[in-house]
């Protein structure tokens, strides 16, 4: 079992990126739900992210959405000043090639060369903004796909996607990594162009050496063994990072661990097992991607970070030498119980020690509620106004 000091050091290294869009009003395809304190501008989103980092000490970067956070006329210098003011930096760039009407038949896999070029130009613009703000990641998710058999040539679309991703990879700064996300369905319901981790890995390899796979924990069919996917991608040096969320049915974007915390623990277990086997870990981007339609935005983020830290700490407590010995004897019950012992350990005291050592509140949600931040934000931002954007 890892020593207490070792676990505290691991927590120092465990950083989680927050999504700007997670602080704005969101909803479902049936409508948006308004919260008085929800952020309306990129400056307000960054301020809210700064509040989460101030209370958790674990979220130094904010992922931004190029189209929503950097509309025409948005000052990049102003965004950087706001980030510095609130003690955070700009993280992954997220292009939007799914919202415009021109992408009805796809973006990078559209039949129209003009539309494909427009999508690629937007990705390149995102990369350029990333250079200016110091971003290290370009995170790509595509709604591209088909809804009916015979609608399009599947192989042709594969080739178009591979060619475009290579061009985007070649445009990246040397310190930037491309994260290729996958999703089995929605909005494409017959053949999504990047439907699973294998497709994402093939396309990432075709794009270039700084392209990796991004695993969104909600983007899988029921009963998919996500931790096995994580282990394989790690072993092939193709895991780039995560979008953390949870789900009951499909891509529900619920808060992490709200449905199946044991699955999240098993994912962290495989990551720490890789460290045990190899002595180190590749750089992984841990990012949140959730839609807080009903929960208060900041509280939901804090809850997610706290849950992730608890579950990650549990994975650090697995007695890996004992587990390896038990596995060698084919002791199924003993091996499983070693994992269960770590999972059922109350790691809140360890987290409290870590937070105290960094001058952080031991209960960040309580500290947020006591701060009055939500009340002041609601008074400034007003109630009853329409959301700027939605994200499902």
Query: What gap, in angstroms, lies between the N and C termini?
Result: 40 Å
Could you list the spans in which at least 5 consecutive residues all have pLDDT below 50? 386-392
Just give the CATH class.
Alpha Beta
Per DSSP E runs of 2 or more residues, the count of β-strands stands at 12
Architecture per CATH nomenclature, i.e. the level-2 architecture: Alpha-Beta Barrel
What's the assembly state of these chains?
single chain
Strand order of the largest sheet: 5-4-1-12-11-10-8-6
- Say what the CATH topology is: TIM Barrel
Order of helices and strands: HEEEHEHHEHEEHEEHEHEHEHHHHHH
Count of alpha/pi helices: 15
Mean pLDDT: 95
Essential attributes:
8-stranded parallel beta sheet; alpha/beta; about 400 residues; about 45% helix; 12 strands; TIM Barrel; disordered C terminus
Task: Describe the model.
The protein is α/β, with parallel strands linked by helices. It has a single domain, classed as Divalent-metal-dependent TIM barrel enzymes (TIM Barrel, Alpha-Beta Barrel). Helix content is 47%, strand content 13%. It is built from 15 helices and 12 strands. It has helices at residues 4-13, 42-56, 66-69, 76-85, 113-133, 154-171, 197-207, 226-235, 261-278, 297-316, 320-328, 332-343, 348-357, 364-371, 373-381, and strands at 16-19, 26-28, 31-33, 61-65, 89-94, 137-140, 145-146, 177-181, 191-192, 211-216, 239-244, 285-288. The strands form 3 sheets. It has an 8-stranded parallel sheet. Strands 2-3 form a two-stranded antiparallel sheet. A two-stranded antiparallel sheet has the order 7-9. Helix 2 packs across helix 10, helix 8 (226-235) runs parallel beside helix 9 (261-278) and helix 9 (261-278) crosses helix 10 (297-316). The longest helix is centred in the first third of the chain and has 21 residues, at 113-133. The chain is globular. The model is unreliable at 386-392 (pLDDT under 50).
